[in-house]
Design goal:
Blueprint lengths: L2 H64 L3 H4 L3 H12 L4 E7 L4 E4 L14 H9 L4 E2 L3 E3 L4 E9 L8 E8 L4 H5 L8 E5 L5 E4 L25 E5 L2 E9 L6 E7 H52 L12 H51 L4 H25 L4 E2 H9 L10 E4 L4 E2 L1 H20 L9 E8 L4 E9 L12 H14 L2 E7 L2 E9 L5 H11 L1
Length: about 550
């Protein structure tokens, strides 16, 4: 497929999951917001009901206090009327006393002695005559007050039979502050209704006081902790109800479902149109990018064909950074190919040169080994061990190449086959020194011979022996290497000149221009080599090879 198709698929793979995920997040966020609104609204309705109950509890307390007045106990209603008016001044409440015939004996709304009719709520009064507890009436129209009022009633205590009920009455409008001072989420309303579903008070103009509430009251709801979905008159509402055991009233909060779900619908509409706009822009951008990439890739193809044909490849500054890098890489590959061809020819000449050198070294090893052995088997063993030592040096050469061989690695390679199991018996110290091929071969054979002698006669021949090898560059510009063996019960060796002595004194001195000294101490032998720095430098041999060629 063309790259445009792949980019289109890529856009769809990115955009569609992102939009889907965004929709899920919006849904989750909306649910969280709804939970927050629900919790806040439940708390608000509970707070409203608590405020109403505090108001009623205060009225009950006031009523109980007034009923302890001596003038009421003595039956002096005129004096009790004056006392009650003074006590209730500024509270918005009034006191009424009725008898069994529901006749008003006094009413603080009017002057004492004026004729009064029957009370307006005989049903609640009858319940109060039958109960020692405070009775809270539903809402009713008070004839004397000419307003919608409610009563809190208590029968006189210690009066048998109960012949009087004392009533504290208050206008429903006085409870509006409990609703209006509570903040509700936008679109929500709250109303206080009595047990007959008549509106006592409501927030703003959401319901009319004294009229039946438009939402039928569900008495089984009690105190709601969650909102309920209800359909009234063809419209869906969310409602929350809080009931009062003290008054038998209810606080109802409600809002149309559209208010609750509206933000989600608006957000989803924006998501859909925004997603389509983003997808369109992404498709346009993909088409532009695909065109640029296609042109660049075709240019790369032409460069690759020139590279395959062995032609010169020049780097091209393509508009796509990565493709421009590939173009640069093709250019570098062409250059490296030319260098590789030159290096291959050089390595072939170098291989022939190295092979001749190795054959010369092996021939010298064979001759020297033959001079110091008395049997064919001894010659084979000695010669084979030296070949192995040379092979280990060669392995290091192959591993490190022209970068040079570390002197520490060379000593480790030659000593490890002979060293005892206890690592503390061998100690090597010195700076990082890199050797050229010739120095590595000569010092490798020297280390092999010294390690062999240590295994046969020296530090590794018995328990308790130790070897210390250290090296450093001194002020004379030469590398000083010390091979010091510590041997318990050391016996001074003879002055025999075997192949090992030839390697150590003749080859190291002759091939590397070094000073070689052998010292015999009371507890072991020490070999000291002082080698010029230029005999070790890996770059020196490279220069020499170029001169040979």
């Amino acid at each position: 497929m063309p790259i445009l198709n792949y980019l289109t698929i890529l856009v769809l793979v990115i955009v569609l999951p992102v939009l889907t995920f965004a929709g899920v997040l919006i849904q989750r966020h909306n649910e969280a917001q709804e939970d927050t609104v629900e919790t806040f609204t439940v708390a608000t309705t509970r707070s409203v009901m608590q405020a109403v109950e505090r108001e009623i509890s205060g009225m009950i307390t006031t009523l109980r206090v007034l009923m302890t007045s001596e003038s009421l106990v003595d039956g002096n209603l005129a004096r009790f009327h004056a006392h009650a008016q003074d006590a209730l001044a500024g509270t918005g409440a009034n006191l009424i006393v009725i008898n069994r015939a529901y006749e008003q004996l006094l009413n603080t709304r009017v002057s004492f002695g004026e004729p009064l009719g029957l009370m307006s709520d005989p049903e609640s009064a009858n319940r109060s005559f039958e109960s020692p507890d405070a009775i809270v009436s539903d809402l009713f129209w008070g004839e004397t007050a000419a307003d919608w009022v409610f009563n809190v009633m208590l029968r006189r205590p210690n009066a048998e039979p109960a012949d009087h009920v004392v009533i504290l009455t208050q206008a429903a409008a006085n409870l509006s502050n409990a609703l209006l001072t509570r903040e509700l989420p936008e679109g929500w309303h709250v109303a206080l209704v009595d047990s007959d579903n008549r509106v006592i008070s409501a927030s703003r103009e959401s319901a009319v006081v004294g009229e039946p509430f438009f939402l039928p009251l569900l008495h089984t709801e009690g105190a709601s902790r969650r909102w309920n979905a209800r359909t009234i008159g063809g419209e869906d509402y969310m409602t929350i109800t809080q009931g009062s055991i003290l008054a038998g009233w209810y606080v109802v909060a409600w809002a149309p479902v559209s208010v609750v779900t509206g933000p989600l619908r608006v957000t989803l509409v924006w998501l859909v149109f925004g997603g389509l706009a983003i997808a369109g822009l992404a498709a346009f951008a993909a088409a532009v990018v695909a065109r640029q990439i296609a042109r660049s890739v075709r240019g790369l193809a032409r460069q690759a064909r020139r590279l395959g044909a062995g032609e010169t490849v020049d780097p091209v500054a393509y508009p796509v950074y990565e493709i421009a890098q590939v173009s640069e890489a093709l250019f570098e590959a062409a250059e490296r190919r030319k260098k590789a061809e030159a290096e291959a020819r050089f390595l072939m000449r170098e291989l022939a040169h190295r092979s001749k050198n190795q054959l010369t070294v092996i021939s010298a090893m064979a001759k020297q080994t033959a001079h110091g052995t008395e049997s064919v088997s001894q010659f084979v063993e000695s010669f084979q061990n030296r070949i192995y030592g040379l092979a280990r040096s060669t392995d290091l050469l192959l591993a490190h190449g022209t970068g040079g061989i570390e002197l520490r690695d060379l000593f480790k390679t030659q000593i490890d086959p002979f060293r005892p199991e206890d690592p503390a018996r061998v100690h090597k110290t010195g700076p990082v020194v890199r050797l050229n091929v010739q120095a590595a071969q000569v010092l490798g054979m020297a280390a092999h011979e010294m390690a062999t002698n240590a295994a046969k006669y020296g530090a590794f021949s018995g328990p308790g022996g130790r070897l210390r090898v250290n090296w450093e560059f001194k002020d004379d510009g030469r590398l000083h290497i010390s091979w010091r063996e510590f041997v318990p019960d050391f016996a001074t060796p003879g002055d025999g000149k075997g192949f090992g002595t030839v390697v150590l004194k003749t080859m190291v001195a002759g091939s590397l221009g070094a000073d070689v000294e052998r010292m015999v101490h009371e507890d072991g032998i020490e070999w000291v080599f002082a080698i010029p720095r230029e005999s070790l430098d890996p770059q020196r041999e490279q220069a020499g090879i170029e001169d040979d060629d």
